[in-house]
Amino acid sequence: MFLINCPYCGERDQQEFKAGGEAHIERPKQPTELSDDEWAEYLFMRKNIKGIQFERWNHAHGCRKWFNMVRDTSNDEIKAIYKMGEKPPSQ
Amino acid sequence: MTKNLRVKSSEYIDETNRISFKFNGKTYHGFKGDTLASALLANNVHLVGRSFKYHRPRGIMTSGSEEPNAIVQINPGTNITEPNVRATEVEIYEGLEASSQNCWPSVQFDIGGINNFLSPFFPAGFYYKTFMWPASFWEKYEFFIRHSAGLGKSPTTSDPDIYDHRNVHCDVLVIGAGIAGILAAKNAAKNNFKTLLVDEKNELGGSTIFENNEFNKIDNKNTSEWLKKEIEKLKDIRNLEIKTRTSVAAYHQYNYLLARENLTDHLEIKDKTNKIRQRLLKIRAKKVILATGALERPMVFNNNDRPGIMLSSAIKKYNEFYGVACGSKNIFFTNNDSAYESALSLYNKGINVEAIIDIREQSESKIVKKVKETGIKIYWSHSIVDTAGYKRLNSVSIMKLSNDGTSVTGRKISITCDCLGVAGGWTPAVHLYTQSGSKLKFDEEKKVFLPNQNTSNQITVGSCCGDFKIDEIINNLNQKLKDTFNINETDLDNIKVEIDQENSKRNIWLLPSDKPLGKTKPFVDYQNDATAKDIKLALKEGFRSIEHVKRYTTTGMGTDQGKLGNMHALGIIADTAGVKMGELGTTTFRPPYTPLTFGTIVGRNVGKYFDIFRRTPMNDWHIENKAEFENVGQWKRAWYYPINEETMHQAVQRESKAARESAGILDASTLGKIDIQGSDASEFLNRVYTNAWSKLAIGKCRYGLMLNEDGMVYDDGVTTRLGENHYIMTTTTGGAANVLGKLEDYLQTEWPELDVYLTSVTDHYATASLCGPNSKKILKKIIPDLDLSDENFPHMSFKEANIGNIQCRIMRISFTGEHSYEINVQASYGKDLWEQCMVAGKEFNITPYGTETMHLLRAEKGFIIVGQDTDGTMTPIDLQMDWIVSKKKYDFIGKRSLYRSDTMREDRKQLVGLLTDDPNIVLEEGAQIVSELNQSPIEMLGHVTSSYFSPNLNKSIALAIVRGGKEMMGKKLFVPMENNNINVTVANPVFYDEKNERLNA
């Protein structure tokens, strides 16, 4: 069970949070301009990395804020946490 | 004949407090402080159980939680009975009853014992190989297997005990209160760290507390004496909490641990009443110090499992700690010096030690010299090749070991004995360490797996990290404490330690016999009866991975999880396959370390708290009026209201007719309600719904359909514009939480520029839905001064009004197709509102109806229910709801996906109506639909999603999704059932009042 440092509330138990998949996939501003393939890329394609992964989390049973997390999926080490809209830390 | 083997008074046994207990129906006596195992041994009872497969007689082997054999049923036949309990962990109390398991009719005479003689027919993988075919026989086999498998008997009534959960936070958690754990905890607490020390036993001190080796000294005192003084000092330390009888079950990532604190199991039954039996501690520790110690290994030799064969360290503990002699003629069999400590411990109490058999050639340590001086016969370079005695060991046969240790030579010597202590070396208890995700490394010299790569904020101290000698333990502990806590000095700095050196080691995983392996029974896993032979057979049959060998032979799969035998299994595999043990690795250590009862895991979440539910404000009325309830998500919704002896069908037919003919009332409080405010609220709704919202006038309502980004229908509901920048959205009952979450997600991550605020108000309002041609008259009676004319209050509009002093919001909207109103009041007035409607509606025979009638009425109108008529693969186009998809809007969630080649296919499954040719046949929901009957295989075109007998149309109606259904209007299809085929015709899904004339009736 992770101990997650919510950027708004501080350290809380994982059971208060909901994972929200890969981070930094921006919804296209003009979806109608996209080809089927381009839209499918946004809609369906997600990475499944063994190693450093950028992902979205939501403090669902807390402040309900979304934020980003950098996690090493091979050992579940949380490398960084930062707010929505902030730039991901460079590696 | 029972004889008393209590040898001396022990400070841990209160001989003034005599306790009687029953084992297999016979009454025995022990003392306060005894475990069931020590009390039985004091009564010279070794035979306590039968093994799993061969039903071989088995005795007490250990003195702790690693016990594989002595597992018993506690208080059999009562509602507090517990199966598979280790007798070595049960503290006796007056009135305790226990019985053997896996034997019939008794442990003394067990019919299943015949399996022992049939054992050549039960090789590894026996069940896989035997019960494979013929396949049709499996049911018969299963009956037989289920009967013969299993250990204890599960209780048949619900558990009357109370269990509890507690969250615990600490700076330092120390697991294990042996010498290393005690010293670590003491120093952590003294340095102002909030420290929790836990141990599974009832007394602190681990194995050092009964250590009496006169050559090991701390500050010139015997180690046990010194440690007792240290334990005394713990009482005065602030910041230190100690929990005994507390076993850590699981060590998860981020130092999250689960421990079971046993509070009443050792108490008499009358003292257990109304107390919490066990508590699950959910511990979050900043640092964890693992001081879990080491488990002594047995050795693997022919017939190494008879009652009377025990671990050497267990014999010492029973002697020193419990004051019990395990036998009167004792032999030890060893590969290291620790058996000599046990032998001396017995010798010093005047208990006869016949001989020590040592597979080493010699040992020069002081303790061995001391044993030699006592005159105890030592057989160097010898091994036990066989043992005798069916229900109790009576002799062992020994022979000389060859130099390479693979065979035995010379004359066979037989020695009579009634107890054999086996000392095969020590295995660090790294179970919890690896559960945390940390990695082990094999130490070739010590022949053990040791902690190597820590992944959490943790350290390992004492023998669990391979420090077996007191001086190693204290020196390494001291350094680790300084590094971990960043301190310069500890009270371990000036401790003077003297130890006896052990230089001679020899390890043989499988000891040879004079007979070939096939004729011997060298047990590796005692509980599951896996022998060295089984492991070799598995390798011969091609298994290589340790995980596969484990499952094929069941080695390490008993309730003890192979705490004693797993290392031997690895060793034998490595030796046989010619690989290094370090390369082989270990099987995965999984929680729990020792079994947990379900009660502890669920804690207080039992009965009505197992899965919490929500009730509407009108709930009491529904109960008073005999409603049947349906679970919708967590809600308990009124399903139907049977009168007298009505069946559900009869009640629903009556309710449905009443709602259309006069008036009905539905509790709609469970619908999700989201209050939406902000200057961009209209724009926000434009983006989340498929239809347009900007032009919705204040005071008007609109039905909206919400899609996922993939274009599939996600939720629906009516949203009302309360003000310029204020809307209230309703969602489906089950979808409310997810819809709120989805909307918040978009607002926070995709459209943070929008000025919109969302508040869930589902629980804040109660909603009564008044429907039917007389609904208007009823509402008029309740709110006389509200103008209900179609001009002032048309369909799809909203009014604020007062019912007496109660403010309410009334939406004129309809899910039934009838003229109807949804009246919302503050939740606390919900029941009052409902009762007022009932009084006002009495003259119109107002009929309360439940969810089933609601479903029927909306199906007559062809209105979908998201989640029943849709399943996450239906677009609005598939649902024939093209009218609700705005062509003008540039974008909304899911829009682009409606133009993907796949979503635009003509032959997608589409929602249609179905009418049975025989109007009295009601289709089954979920039934499959085909176009041909005489073809095999035949394509399934779709399935029935909703189906009812409509009392208003007096015929059966159904909604279905059918491939290419839109183009099939009027086409004949078939619904094949088990005994017949039902002929159906595709129809318009709107069966009733197609022109919506009743809305304004």
Characterize the structure shown.
The complex is a heterodimer of chains A (91) and B (1001). Chain A is built from 1 helix and 6 strands. Chain A is mainly beta and 91 residues long. In chain A, the strands form 2 sheets. In chain A, strands 3-4-5-6 form a 4-stranded antiparallel sheet, with no helix packed on it. Chain A is globular. The longest helix of chain B has 16 residues, at 470-485. Chain B contains 24 helices and 50 strands. The model of chain B has no long low-confidence stretch (mean pLDDT 93). In chain B, 22% of the residues lie in helices and 28% in strands. With 1001 residues, chain B is of the alpha+beta class. Chain B has 6 domains: 1-154, Ubiquitin-like (UB roll) (Roll); 162-294 and 428-498, FAD/NAD(P)-binding domain (3-Layer(bba) Sandwich); 313-424, 3-Layer(bba) Sandwich (FAD/NAD(P)-binding domain); 508-600, BFD-like [2Fe-2S]-binding domain (Arc Repressor Mutant, subunit A, Orthogonal Bundle), CATH 1.10.10.1100; 667-857, Gyrase A, domain 2; 898-1000, Elongation Factor Tu (Ef-tu), domain 3. The chains are: A mainly beta (91), B alpha+beta (1001).
CATH class category name of chain A:
Alpha Beta
The count of strands of chain A amounts to 6
Residues in helices of chain A, as a percent range: under 10%
- The stretches of 5 or more residues of chain A where confidence is low (pLDDT under 50) are none
Number of strands of chain B: 50
Instruction: Enter the CATH topology name of the largest domain in chain B.
Output: FAD/NAD(P)-binding domain
Major sheet of chain B: size, sense and barrel closure? 7 strands, mixed
How helical, in percent, are the residues of chain B?
10-25%
Low-confidence stretches of chain B: none
> What is the structural class of chain B?
alpha+beta
